[in-house]
Design brief:
- This protein is of the alpha+beta class.
- It has one domain.
- Helix content is 41%, strand content 17%.
- A two-stranded antiparallel sheet has the order 1-2. A two-stranded antiparallel sheet has the order 3-4.
- Strand 3 and strand 4 form a beta hairpin.
- The longest helix is centred in the first third of the chain and has 19 residues.
- InterPro entries: YHS_dom.
- This is YHS domain-containing protein.
Length: 157
């Protein structure tokens, strides 16, 4: 039980930090400038199998959020079907979503499950997530419909 309290405490702290960084709206975890995934290329997770920093010179804006790409080919792939490459839960931590809160997803702590990109807050949180992915996915899907449009800071009150 203490491990869970510690994990949730860390998530709560991140949520308060995440709330101040939102620009694109509460549905997407973006910086104050509207940059998603901290500038990582969303397509590269699928094509390179690794988080890859995008270039400020190669960008697309989708639903008021800016995405960067490591190549023109990745940008074209994204532009053809953006929904296929967007991280689940707006790029918020998948485990946090399952707990009913929104916290930063670290673009270097990720997994592709059933052709969907999921981020987690940290490797410790991802270990917890990995202990029951089907169960946490089910919880997260249910919680996301409740919290998608909520401000992260409000969820901590």
């Amino acid at each position: 039980m203490n491990k869970i309290k510690t994990l949730l405490g860390g998530i709560a702290l991140s949520a308060s930090l995440a709330g101040a960084a939102l620009a694109a709206g509460v549905e997407v975890n973006a910086s104050s400038t509207g940059l998603a995934l901290q500038g990582y290329d969303p397509v590269a997770y699928f094509t390179e199998g690794a988080p890859t920093k995008g270039s400020y010179k190669i960008t697309s804006v989708y639903e008021d959020t800016t995405y960067r790409f490591s190549s023109d080919a990745n940008k074209a792939t994204f532009d053809a079907d953006p929904e296929a490459y967007l991280p689940k839960y707006g790029g918020y931590c998948a485990f946090g979503t399952a707990m009913g809160i929104k916290v930063d997803g670290d673009p270097t702590v990720w997994a592709i499950i059933d052709d969907e990109l999921y981020l987690n807050l940290s490797t410790d949180i991802q270990e917890r997530w990995n202990s029951d992915i089907p169960g946490y996915l089910e919880k997260a899907e249910g919680k996301w419909t409740e919290i998608e449009h909520e401000d992260p800071a409000v969820l901590l009150q």
